[in-house]
Amino acid sequence: MSKIAINIGPVSITWYSICILTGIILAGIVINKEAKKNNISSAFVTNLVFWCVVFGILGARIYYVLFNLDYYSAAPIEIIKVWNGGLAIHGGIIAGVITLIIYCKKYGVNVLKMIDIAAPGLILAQAIGRWGNFFNAEAHGGAVSRAFLEGLHLPEFIIDGMHINGNYYHPTFLYESILCLIGFFVLIGVRSLKNTKLGATTSIYLIWYGLVRFFVESLRTDSLMLGNIKMAQLISVFMVILGIIMFIITKIKCNNYNEEKAAKNEIKY
Q1: Could you tell me which residues are beta bridge partners of residue 104?
Q2: Which of 176, 128, 131 is nearest to 28 (CA)?
């Protein structure tokens, strides 16, 4: 069960919901700030983020439910209780990207440019949203000793939070959150480089998060499985390969452009 943060009469607001909402808001601010630099209106960004969040959450839930059909077919009412956890980020990303593509094509906005703009905001939202797993006492790794956690110099509240049903566990939510936060600054740095080309930020996101999730998933004990394969690791491998291919294509296009430009300058001279 998700821990309650605020009670307002009959309405209860969970920490899980607060973490997800905080991530969405901060991501929206980051995306909107960069979009303005590219002459993309705030109204467009606001509507885009709204629909991507709606369909992203729906996609994340459907993805999770499909891999836990035995449980949810026996208790279908549980499907709507997203506040108790059970959102698979890969399902959310897939649904969100599809929504972004459709929305950008509808209004004539370059899809790849918009994904480049959105990538840092997305990984920031992931970093913050992972804390919802902490408050739900879910998505942790295998059992460890208290001494191990103390050796990581973690705050006491995290160590205590990782004490679940009599055992201490790897705080995989924290590992992923920190690595995603580092990834956010990496993407901001890459995007700010003078010669960064279209698609480079997206390719770095795919490679970075793919590697992060592959590592984190190796420690988790609640993975969604496809036979004997951890589905998140399979998708992570695909993300890394896709990111590398995109990066190479971007590099080749950049080199071709520079060669063509140099040739034109020589002709003019």
Answers
A1: none
A2: 128
**This prediction's pTM:** 0.91
Q: In a 3-state reduction of DSSP, which class is residue 119?
A: helix
Residue 178's φ and ψ, nearest 5 degrees, are: -65, -45
CA 147, chain centre distance (Å): 31
Query: Amino acid letter at 145?
Result: S
φ/ψ (deg, to 5) at 164: -125, 125
Query: Which neighbouring-strand residues pair with 141?
Result: 220
- Cβ neighbours of residue 161 under 8 Å, at least 6 residues apart? 134, 135, 137, 171
167: pLDDT strictly greater than 70:
yes
Q: At residue 9, what is the residue type?
A: G
Tell me how far apart the alpha carbons of residues 237 and 114 are, in angstroms, rounded to a whole number: 24
Interval 53-94: pLDDT, tens: 999 999 999 999 999 999 999 999 999 988 777 899 999 999
pLDDT tens track for 141-166: 999 999 999 999 999 999 999 999 99
* 8 Å CB contact between 200 and 190: yes
Q: What are phi and psi of 155, to 5 degrees?
A: -60, 150
CA 22-205-191 angle, 5° bins = 90
Residue 83: what pLDDT?
A: 77
Question: Is 227 in a helix, a strand, or coil?
Answer: coil
